[in-house]
Amino acid sequence: MAPAQLELFKFTLYVFAPVATMLHYGDPDWYERWVGPHRADYRKEDIKQVEPPRDTNELKAELARLREERLARKAHKDSAIAAMDERPRI
Fold this sequence. Notes:
There is one protein chain. The chain is an all-alpha fold. The chain folds into two domains: 1-39; 57-90. The protein is built from three helices and no strands. The mean pLDDT is 86. It is a single-pass membrane protein. Its main location: membrane. Belongs to the PET100 family. InterPro entries: Pet100 (IPR018625).
């Protein structure tokens, strides 16, 4: 069995390594210096914002649109699978 000093070292490493990492990388100055300049690459205008439906009719229309898209994707996938099955096998 390992000596007690080894167990104490491992315990210290397991406890204090994550704490030291959080203290280093969680510092606001470090974040602003290293991460802040790269945040401009991800503009909010590039992300499509979805507005929730306001009433029941809008909700039903959105659900119908999503259902049609899902069925169209399924039909496309089924036709692709059928086309693969019709290929001659070697």
